[in-house]
Amino acid sequence: MKERVYRIRAGIPHTIALLSDLHNADAHGAVTILRHRKPDLIAVTGDLFNGYEAREGDDLLEAQTRVLPFICECVRLAPTYISLGNHEWAASPSDLQALGDAGAVLLDNSWIRDASTGLVLGGLTSALLMDYRRFRKKHGKSRRYPEEIRHTDAYVLRPSINWLPSFEEQDGYKILLCHHPEYWCMQPPMLKDHPIDLVLSGHAHGGQIRLFGQGLFAPGQGLLPRYTGGLFEGPHGNMIVSRGLANTAPPPIPRLFNPREVVTIRLY
To answer: For residues 65 and 25, is the Cβ–Cβ distance under 8 A?
Structure first.
């Protein structure tokens, strides 16, 4: 496990830990870094669960036993905020409620002002999860959610952004937790054009295999993706992409030259 540090001029001195893509993996290394760094707040940008191992109706927290202890450790260290990624499609309302009951703040297409830092934090929910919710509302439990939507990028889905204007008009430094880095400028809502100071993302797993500093593949971006890790500048703010805490590619695909990471962001 590696720590990667970014410094951003923001007019306020705070330290933020960015964590993404746990996928129910062992988080001991990440927690060790967090204990040493002692951030002012922790941002978890989705894919806590490994949704491809789940079947609809399963209790994910009961089956994927590393998720809740990890969130409890985060909450003990700093105020913890969670947005929802594509793998959360299989999480039941009770699963999500349990994360909140543990002390984390779930940002499900919503925003809040952190009481200790004054930072304004929003969470943009994955379009796949929103599509799943629409599917269930229409069909109830009578039909299985199509495998081709969950396992490929063949469907062009859009997140729900009707709440973003309320978030964007807030005074203060605005941070959006958004699992998908492709929403930055590859597909709507084109977040780089929105008045948001900092977007925090994951999802790309660093491109899985990195050669000469270039990731080879990322979901939603395809071959030789651009947004797999690092700091990206836009006209209104920046985006930081985490390479993630776990490897979920099926065997025999390895994760090479691409260490798992905790991202530390120093606002100054």
So the answer is: no
